[in-house]
Amino acid sequence: MRPLPRAKALMGREADAVRVPLSTPTPQTQRLGILMLLGSVMLFTMMDALGKHLTQSYHPAQVIWMRMAINLAIVLAVLAPRLRTVARSRSPWLQVGRGLTQVASIGLFFTALQHIGLAEATAIMDINPVLITLGAAVFLGERIGIRRLAGVAVALAGALVIIRPGAGVLHPAAILPFIAAFTYAAGAIMTRLVRGDSTATSILWSTTIATLGVSVVAPFVWQPIAASDLWAFVGMGLLGTVAQALLIRAFSLAEAAAVAPFGYTGLIWAGLWGALFWGTWPDVWTLVGAAMIVGAGLYVWAREARAMRNAGG
């Protein structure tokens, strides 16, 4: 995974700081970050389930625009008294990058949900924790060795088992959450880099940029919204707002490699929603690939935890 070259050139001193290791969080902040990530993952999978429901009747760009616009409206209403102060960012180009990676990952994922199951898409997307670990080493100065690189390779292999390229088993759209995992990981690394900004500032910037980005496409695919679907659009916006706030706070409090593996709980929630609402269960290859991804991620996490204990004496 490579940084955005144009953005990196424009960031100046921010780009120079990319490879500087960040301060080590305390055990208390690590635990709090993990709890926040767990809550974020559950809410995001609920939002994804609503998104899959809506993309059966509406274009993904319209669904995403509604999700982001409702999110932005909530954020603006909450932050209105101090909007001018909150809007100031110490890392504006990184915030722009976060917004663009957010809309890219959501767009790719929701487009895939039109063609494949929620559990399959989530399993493929869940290679992002090991990608975050790799990115944290490259861009944040966090340590990585041959064993962690092996974990990254196994996770990528697990994703390929699920996608099964060339086998003609799974829909070609399965490649979309694979790409989305890379954009999600890039956004997570940028979130770690903008810790100088408050959570409110990060939410305002990413939501605004994402809404503007999808506004380029939405008018061309718009169709009237049925009254019976309004609750789903509103629910998706509310869930996305809270989940995003928890996600940003989680990566601000704890090391990326420490909290990222807990994102695998999304597989459980996605499987549950898929079974409850669509009666779909992941096939054996999805389970094998998911096991490879989760196993690789947990191995990387175990290595990180051991390294932290050794560093602590």
From TrEMBL:
Keywords: Membrane, Transmembrane, Transmembrane helix. This is DMT family transporter. SUPFAM superfamilies: Multidrug resistance efflux transporter EmrE. Residues 32-163, 173-296 form the EamA domain. It comes from Paracoccus panacisoli. InterPro entries: EamA_dom, EmrE-like. The keyword Glycoprotein does not apply. The chain crosses the membrane at residues 32-51, 63-80, 100-117, 123-141, 148-167, 173-191, 203-225, 231-251, 258-278, 284-302. It comes from the Bacteria. Gene3D superfamilies: 1.10.3730.20. The keyword tRNA processing does not apply.
